[in-house]
DUF397 domain-containing protein
Amino acid sequence: MEQYLSEAALEGRWLRSSSADPALSTSILVRHNVNTVSIRRGKGGLVLVFDDVEWEDFMRGAKNGEFDRPDKAP
């Protein structure tokens, strides 16, 4: 599967959702690496690393609503 990464991702920079408040240390940050994706909470948070297959599986599930909170159902 061919993927297109943003310029920031190609440079290995941490990315934050445009809807997140950058002043909050609880923001989730994502960085796309060569064969992995890293996520962390805030600037100094623990870093979790997932391979490309794990990340794609997670993203597919998230987009399908598989991880939605039961109390937040539409």
User: Anything to note?
Assistant: Helices lie at 7-10, 52-63. Residues 39 and 48 are 5 Å apart (CA to CA).
